C-alpha cells in the first residue's frame, strides 16, 4: 500500500498568495491553561472526516471542496485550463526536477517549458485571471497529497482562502500540482466579507495527530524535519486585523492541558494575520480535544471555542483512499451541575473490528512483536507473552471436543481446510476430552486445526499463523485478564 505522507523524503512547496501587508507588530501569541472556559464547551453532536463516504468517486478538486465546506468556505469551480496548466508543470517536474532558483519556476531551456511562473503558465494556455500554485512530491495519490498539504500552515491558506475561485489539479509520477485561479478584485472583497472566523480543524472535524515540519517557506526552522503536533488555525473574521491572541488546548480524553505549544508570528508575511499554533508533541490518536482562541489586546475583538478529534486509522494518520478509518460518532456533556463531564459513545467500529479479527492471533509489528489473541467468546484481547505462557494461557480458553468431532476438522497437513464444524469453531482452542486434553487451535485463515503440543509449538503457531498489525489498530479492543 502506497501512502502520500509528510515524511522526510516528501517535499512541500508553496507559492504564497498576495496576502495583506502588515504595518504593525502584534504581541506574541500566548498559551493559557485557565480552565474557566471549559464550561462553555459544547458537544459537536457528531465528528466528521473529509473521507466520510466514498471519496474515490469524487474528483480531487471536489475532495478539496469537502475541506472548504467543513470550514464554511465557498466551493471552488474546477477549471480545465488550470488542470492542463498543472499537468504541464507536473510533466516538467518529472522530466527536470525542481528549478533551483524558484521551486515553482521553470528553466526556459529545459524540456517541457511553458512558463517561468505559475501565472505565466496559466496565461500561456489562455487563462485570463491570476493563477497561483501548490505542489508536492511523494508516494501516494492526489487525495492523500491534498490531506498532506492541508496539514501545513501556509499551503492551507492557499487552499482554503475565500478569495480564490477556481482550481485544477494534476499528477505525473510522484509530482502533484494544483493551480488555483482568482480575480484580484474578488480576492480582496472576499476577505472583507468574511462574517465568521475560519478555524482549523473545523468544529467536530477529525484530523491527523501530527505535522512534519517540511514546508517552503519554513514555519518552524528550529524543528525542520521533525514531527510535531498538527497545525491549528484561527483566522479572524475579515482577515485584516493582526490578532493578539491567547490559545488553549485541552485533551478531553485524558483531561489535561497541552502546555508546550509553538506559534507562528502573525507578523510573518506568509501567516496573513492568521493565528497558527502547533503542540510541540504529536497528539494522541483517537482523543477528543477542545480549543480556545481569545483576543488579549483588551479590545475583546474575538473569542472562539470548539472541539475536534484525532483520527483512529487502520495504519497511518491519513490512509489512502481505499482504506477505512473509524472514530467515535459523538460526545455528550451530561452533568446538570454545569461541571464538564465527558461521556464517550462506544465506537461502532470496534464491534466490526472484533467481528473481523475474532479468533486471530495478532502480532504487533510496530513494537516488539507482541502477540495478542482476540477471544471469540469474551471478545477481549489477551497478551501472549511467550510460548510457555501462550500454551497455558490458550488452554484456559479451551472448549472440550470429542475425537469424532475433532476428526471432522482438517488437520495442519491436509491439503484443504474448511467444513461446517471448522467454520463454527474458527479461532477456538479445542481440548480432546477423550484423550489427555490435547490442545488444538483452529486457524481462521485456513480453517485447519493445529496441535499445540507444548510451549514451543504454541510459540511456532503464534509466529507462523499470526497476522501482522499495528498496535494502534487493535488498541480499542478491551484487554482481558485471566485470573
Indicate the mean pLDDT. 80
List how many beta strands DSSP finds: 29
How many DSSP H or I helices? 12
Rg of Cα set: 27 Å
Structural class: alpha+beta
Helix content: 10-25%
How far do the termini sit from each other? 40 Å
The 3D shape can be described as elongated
Tell me the strand percentage band.
25-35%
Low-confidence stretches: 1-24, 313-317, 324-346
Quick one: biggest sheet?
Answer: 6 strands, mixed
How would you describe this structure to a colleague?
Helices cover 22% and strands 25% of the residues. The protein contains 12 helices and 29 strands. The strands form 8 sheets. Strands 2, 8, 12, 13, 16 and 17 form a 6-stranded mixed sheet that branches. Strands 1-4-6-5-3 form a 5-stranded mixed sheet, with helices on both faces. Strands 7-11-15-14 form a 4-stranded antiparallel sheet, with no helix packed on it. It is elongated and about 85 Å long. The two termini are 40 Å apart. The model is unreliable at 1-24, 313-317 and 324-346 (pLDDT under 50).
Amino acid at each position: 500500500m502506497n501512502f502520500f505522507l509528510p515524511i522526510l523524503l516528501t517535499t512541500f512547496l508553496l507559492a504564497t498568495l498576495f496576502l495583506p501587508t502588515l504595518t504593525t507588530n502584534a504581541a506574541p501569541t500566548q498559551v493559557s491553561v485557565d480552565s474557566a472556559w471549559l464550561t462553555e464547551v459544547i458537544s459537536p453532536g457528531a465528528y466528521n472526516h473529509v473521507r466520510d463516504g466514498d471519496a474515490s468517486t469524487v474528483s480531487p478538486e471536489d475532495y478539496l471542496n469537502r475541506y472548504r465546506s467543513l470550514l464554511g468556505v465557498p466551493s471552488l469551480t474546477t477549471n480545465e485550463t488550470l488542470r492542463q496548466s498543472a499537468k504541464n508543470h507536473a510533466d516538467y517536474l518529472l522530466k527536470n526536477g525542481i528549478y533551483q532558483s524558484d521551486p515553482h519556476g521553470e528553466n526556459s531551456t529545459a524540456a517541457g517549458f511553458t512558463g517561468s511562473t505559475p501565472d505565466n503558465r496559466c496565461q500561456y494556455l489562455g487563462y485570463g485571471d491570476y493563477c497561483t500554485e501548490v505542489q508536492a512530491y511523494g508516494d501516494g495519490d492526489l487525495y492523500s497529497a491534498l490531506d498532506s498539504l492541508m496539514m501545513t500552515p501556509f499551503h492551507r491558506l492557499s487552499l482554503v482562502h475565500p478569495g480564490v475561485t477556481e482550481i485544477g489539479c494534476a499528477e505525473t509520477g510522484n509530482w502533484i500540482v494544483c493551480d488555483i485561479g482568482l480575480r484580484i478584485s474578488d480576492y480582496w472583497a472576499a476577505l472583507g466579507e468574511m462574517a465568521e472566523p475560519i478555524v482549523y480543524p473545523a468544529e467536530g472535524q477529525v484530523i491527523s495527530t501530527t505535522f512534519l515540519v517540511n514546508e517552503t517557506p519554513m514555519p518552524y526552522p528550529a524543528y525542520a524535519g521533525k514531527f510535531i503536533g498538527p497545525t491549528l488555525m484561527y483566522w479572524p473574521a475579515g482577515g485584516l486585523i493582526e490578532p493578539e491572541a491567547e490559545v488553549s488546548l485541552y485533551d478531553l480524553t485524558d483531561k489535561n492541558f497541552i502546555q508546550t505549544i509553538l506559534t507562528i508570528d502573525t507578523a510573518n508575511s506568509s501567516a496573513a494575520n492568521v493565528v497558527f499554533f502547533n503542540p510541540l508533541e504529536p497528539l494522541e490518536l483517537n482523543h477528543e480535544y477542545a480549543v480556545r482562541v481569545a483576543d488579549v489586546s483588551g479590545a475583546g475583538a474575538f473569542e472562539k471555542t470548539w472541539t475536534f478529534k484525532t483520527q483512529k486509522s487502520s495504519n497511518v494518520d491519513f490512509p489512502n483512499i481505499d482504506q477505512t478509518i473509524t472514530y467515535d460518532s459523538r460526545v455528550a456533556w451530561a452533568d446538570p451541575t454545569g461541571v464538564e463531564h465527558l461521556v464517550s459513545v462506544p465506537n461502532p467500529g470496534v464491534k466490526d473490528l472484533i467481528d473481523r479479527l475474532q479468533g486471530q492471533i495478532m502480532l504487533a509489528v510496530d513494537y516488539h512483536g507482541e502477540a495478542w489473541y482476540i477471544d471469540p467468546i469474551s471478545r477481549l484481547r489477551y497478551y501472549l507473552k511467550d510460548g510457555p505462557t501462550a500454551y497455558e494461557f490458550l488452554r484456559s480458553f479451551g472448549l472440550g471436543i470429542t475425537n469424532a468431532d475433532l476428526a471432522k476438522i482438517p488437520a495442519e497437513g491436509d491439503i484443504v481446510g474448511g467444513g461446517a464444524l471448522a467454520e463454527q469453531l474458527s479461532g477456538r482452542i479445542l481440548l480432546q476430552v477423550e484423550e489427555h486434553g490435547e490442545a488444538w487451535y483452529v486457524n481462521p485463515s485456513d480453517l485447519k486445526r493445529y496441535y499445540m503440543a507444548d510451549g514451543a509449538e504454541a510459540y511456532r503457531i503464534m509466529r507462523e499463523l499470526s497476522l501482522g498489525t499495528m498496535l494502534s489498530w487493535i488498541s480499542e479492543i478491551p484487554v482481558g485478564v485471566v485470573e
